[in-house]
Amino acid sequence: MRLQRAIGLIFGITSLVFSAAAQDRSTGGIKGKVRVETGSPAGVSVLVRQGDREVTRAATDRNGDFSIQRLTPGIYGLTFRKTGLSVGAVENLEVKAGKVRSLGDRLLLSIDEGSIAFLRGSIFDETGRSLPNARVELARILDDGSLKKIDGRVTNETGSFVFRLMPEPAKYRVTAKADHMQPASKDVDVDSAVVYRIAISLQPAK
């Protein structure tokens, strides 16, 4: 009797496993990797739709990867969104039962010029003259006060530079350097998609 019950239990578990497997084989999926022109690829919203109807949604991880499972076989479209980046879309993706459609890493979201912050500045010497070819470094000031370098520039012939930033609230430090000059820095609080302007004057090295 115990042997029969054990066999019955094993049969029942095996039947559930086969049923689940059959269910998985009846659906498909989509996976891919999103790259971004600036910032982190994490947190890109991936909206899955059929026509105008939203089916499901997901978000990319810190590497820009996403995976969507259990999609009924059919034709789908994907929309990719993140603040500060242009909206991306992929259409007419066919999902087949038991298959995962891979989009690779060809998805690139460029900067949306209308929804980013611009940090523009000019570098001057002690007499007020513009300093071309000055080195400008941009670092983010973290919560613990440490600095994380973000980008670097060299000023143009008029001593000017520009950085493009995500409009998320953050504090940045701009440091200017030039030969035979003392480095100088200024901090900037960024919290929206507007143009921030600064000017830095460098003094001769002692």
Query: Helix count, per DSSP?
Result: 1
| Overall pLDDT | 87
Indicate the low-confidence ranges by residue numbers.
1-23
Question: SS-based structural class?
Answer: mainly beta
Q: Tell me what portion of residues adopts beta-strand conformation.
A: over 45%
Strand segment tally: 15
Shape: elongated
CA(first)-CA(last) distance: 96 Å
Order of helices and strands: HEEEEEEEEEEEEEEE
How would you sum up the major sheet? 4 strands, mixed
| Residue share in helix | 10-25%
Describe this structure in words.
- The longest helix is centred in the first third of the chain and has 24 residues, at 2-25.
- Strands 1, 4, 7 and 8 form a four-stranded mixed beta sheet that branches. Strands 3-2-5-6 form a four-stranded antiparallel beta sheet, with no helix packed on it.
- It has one helix at 2-25; strands spanning 28-36, 45-50, 53-59, 65-71, 74-81, 88-95, 100-102, 107-109, 117-124, 135-141, 147-154, 160-165, 170-177, 184-190, 195-201.
- With 206 residues, the protein is mainly beta.
